[in-house]
Amino acid sequence: MLRIGIDVGGTHTDAVLLDGDAVIASTKALTSADVTTGILDALETILTEHRGIEDTVEAVMLGTTQFTNAVIERRELAEVAAVRIGIPSGTGIPPKIGWPDDVARSLGDNVYMIRGGYLYDGWALAELDDAEMDAVVGDLKAKKVDAVAISSAFSPMNPEPEQILAKRIRAAMPNTRITESHKIGRLGILERENAALLNASLLGFADRVVSSFVDAIRQRGLTCRFFVSQNDGTLMDAEFARQFPALTFASGPTNSLRGACKLTGLDDAIVVDIGGTTSDIGILQDGFPRESSIVIEVGGVRTNFRMPDILALGLGGGSLVTEGGDKVGPRSVGHALVEEGLVFGGDTLTATDIVVATGNVTIGDSSRVADLDRDLVSSAVRQMTGMLNAGIEKMKPSSDPLPVVLVGGGAVLVTEKLDAASEMLTPEHAGVANAIGAAIAQIGGETERMVSYDKTPRKQAIEEVTREATSIALAAGADSSTIRMADIEETSISYMAGNTTRLRVKVVGDIGSIGGTTAGEDVA
Amino acid sequence: MKLTADDLQDLSSGAVFLATGGGGDPYVSFLATRKVLEEHGPVDLISVDELDDDAYIVAIGGVGAPTVSLELLPSVDDASIALAEFERHVGRKVDAVVSFEIGGGNSLVPIMAAASRGIPVVNGDGMGRALPEAQMMTFPIAGVAPTPAIGIDYAGNVVTFSTDSTGTYERHVRAMAQAMGGMITTAEHPMTGKQLKSSVVPDTISFSIEIGRILREYRGSAHRIFDPLSAAFANSLYGDLFHIYTGKVVDYSSSIIGGYDIGEASIESFDNGEPPLRLNIKNEFLVARIGDQVVASVPDLITVLDYETSTPINAERLRYGQRVTVFGVGCPDYYRTDRALDVVAPRCFGFDFEFVPVEDLQEHHQSLAGT
To answer: Can you tell me the ipTM of this complex?
Structure first.
């Protein structure tokens, strides 16, 4: 089975062509400003040697850090009005409280708190007020706000207030982009509201980015199905990705960890993904990224997505080397490395120049670093090794040494043995591990049911719902031997009789053969 | 000592450790308290000895199911309204406020009340941890009457309580909390300085700040943080710190029953070398068992931490697949007296066994594991 994995990063667009498990072509191209050209360039390279296979490619999977980077770098964020339905509760705790000032500012000043919402037992917290809703809609219209995030107290149990307000806004302004919080998060109103706000802020950008992806793939003559990878390592279809770009947050690290697993065959390892500006350290356990169990911040904003546990260090190929080699990073020339680095003819001393100066690696013009002070070089190498050792020490699950897998474009930077490593591996294709991870991303199956534990014992209910989720995953093309439980979520609806619980189960499995239903549909 | 907005982060994370899974996530209370302190300035944190014997003090905090506060947000002026309503109800001014529960967000609620009114907050509390019922507080155990007391809900609706029995007060306040959205703010157990001195668990606010500082400075795996934490507890009125278990959450269920979060969690060791650990939850982690053997129980403290970062985890934030470490801590001696055990022993929570101190259980368990 032929499939293509593409990873669109801030600097590079990588692509791989997989035949079953084998990587038969790979490339690293520069990400273009319009995204499309970069993808076309990458596709051109991997398809050049395999003319005429366009019709036999079964799927294209795309991973992207575009949306995460947009939040972290505070760009492409559209103004979003935040409307919370929950007054009189939460007075003085408005939406965006606790956010870094710059992200909060990027989303504008339009914050509304109105009466309504529900209590835990189904009693109205307050009645929705027609006049108050009209005033909000009128103000949104006057201010020409085109994106809105709506949250409401206990909306995972009763989404009606969010739905009513969304309907009114759409009736008055049909083109408004709206994210209702109950569609993107679970219990925990602040985190769910934050996720809805970031998502709504990215909707316009998502439209453009997904369109560029689809255009590029179609222009290259690929007519197969197209998926985008999510933060939990499963796939969603293009239409779903347009509506929920925030679900791609952290898909980059997930893909690079899964790619490292695929490339080395190791199920348990420390993976260090070294890019131009940062090194991301993650842990593979049983072949999957270790998840973070604490509240995750995206660009300083608290959310409650499930995400891999990643430690980012300010060390990459473009990191500035200063103070006579005693300081490396966190500032970096980033993607300008190929112009500003010494070995590329520039005049900025970077981590890449240091490694070339050690003689262990050949990149660019090594004569330009031949005269570097030896003490400076060895001091900088010590710094870099020390930073990685300290980071790995923080992340590793026990004191036992584990294999360390180096991936990413900057993997060549590591020339010294790391203390925490039982062995060090830089597998072939390590530079494109992200794209490989995207290509092997999994199919998810999710089922949600209201169940009464008084009528059906809990264990039996979970088994039944799991069976249903499994059949959805199988229908979407998952290989039955690889199906495993990814998540169980229970929300007790205490105002309903019979110990009623909203039970949600997600299972995932490797792609067997693509076919049947669209994987993204069951997520919606 | 002045409490400033800068102390609040450490105070809240230390308070989650001491909350033994209950008390609610203090994040929202932290945001609200920071806002109040930024507006009104620092608060006087006074030691118990600094109080006049005839000073008039009231305990302030939230009562209800922690899961509710994930969705029903408090308002920044809940605490000051509760204090004002209490003073109106009793017809006199309060000289200082005290926390009835250091664990979780209730460590912060009295600070908001104190700041907005310019009165001090007492360094200490009525539990030294978190516990689910009012009669389990040190104040009633020492004979302080629960009322006059008031409660306010999310809409500012006020109820008053008048009973001399804290057991009865607990029934009333629980029923009202359920009827008023699941979480209310109360001002209760008014007492004199003299009464407070004989009943409070002293210095717990400053101790919680210290625990929070250790959690921040030694952020990392649970085995890394054990020694500094252990040293801090050895120097406190608590007992020793023990490592109880490390593993992955394989089952967790919880529902709001009778105004409490009632649930159970199972944790499986990473290498499956040991039988799973089961935790019983009633707002707090009450009992930890490995197989049939109890390895720690209330009133001793059972705390669950994220294995990798040592961040303490509230019971309502437990999730399938989390990797966790479970610590046990001996409770303050006060809670091991017969008088206290009458209301906080495992039997008071419906468990059919006597309380055995965590240090004895650990010794027993280790000797079994070693043979």
So the answer is: 0.85
